[in-house]
Design a protein that fits this description.
By secondary structure, the chain is an alpha/beta fold. Helices cover 38% and strands 11% of the residues. The chain contains nine helices and six strands; from the N terminus they run ααβαβααββαβαβαα. Strands 3-2-5-6 form a four-stranded parallel sheet. β5, α7 and β6 form a beta-alpha-beta unit. The radius of gyration is 17 Å and the shape is globular.
């Protein structure tokens, strides 16, 4: 089955694309995009993989759903397109980076620059119907993205997994803790962050410290 995804990932996941659930998922997504406004745009559904090649991968951040507001989603979790107002979770991510690394607050919420450095910004569900959060959950995306995490765990070493919030933390069971480095905290959404579960986690400096300890290039956050 032809899937428009970067070649480095295609070779790792090719068996997944032939499975009945993925064929059904593809049909569902096609119908949704034809019948409703959905995000991200079709060509950006696999953007997380296109910007972060399998061989370059060194950090994984797991989100749940794409943004469902007008023109926000660009296929990378927590990221928005240039010139789009930053959602509250993303603002809190940048505030933590500001405190942790004393870096200035960025002008754009577009995280393509992270992805190009080997950060896989993976939503568990890769598509959504406009203004309907969670509308494409339970259709097969989660099975696919769980397999992505399992593949990374099995075939890579020394990857940092950043698991923020209860949903992401459940993915720890898919990761070999002896081969990889897992950091967990509350979610950066205001609900969690304002109750003390996000700020001060220092995940960005901790990630770079681990990468340096393995003689890998740190991320320019």
């Amino acid at each position: 089955m032809k899937v428009n995804i970067d070649e480095s990932w295609k070779s790792e996941l090719k068996e997944e694309f032939e499975k009945p659930y993925f064929v059904q998922l593809t049909e569902f997504v096609k119908n949704e995009y034809q019948s409703h406004r959905c995000y991200p745009k079709g060509k950006a559904i696999f953007a997380a993989f296109d910007y972060c090649k399998f061989d370059d991968l060194k950090v994984v951040i797991i989100g749940q759903d794409p943004y469902h507001g007008v023109d926000q989603a660009n296929g990378l979790c927590f990221s928005v397109k240039d010139h789009i107002a930053m959602p509250p979770s993303l603002i809190n991510i940048f505030k933590e980076i500001e405190q942790d690394l004393t870096k200035p607050f960025p002008k754009t919420g577009n995280l393509e620059r992270w992805a190009k450095q080997g950060v896989l910004l993976l939503n568990a569900t890769l598509t959504v119907r406009a203004h309907q959060a969670g509308s494409h959950q339970g259709k097969g995306w989660e099975q696919f993205t769980d397999q992505v995490i399992s593949t990374i765990s099995a075939k890579k070493e020394n990857v940092v997994f950043l698991l923020w919030g209860g949903f992401a933390k459940k993915k720890a069971q898919l990761i070999d803790k002896n081969k990889h480095h897992i950091l967990t905290s509350g979610h950066p959404s205001p609900l969690s962050a304002n109750r003390g579960y996000w700020f001060g986690n220092k995940h960005f400096s901790k990630t770079n410290a681990f990468l340096k300890s393995k003689h890998l290039e740190p991320v320019e956050w």
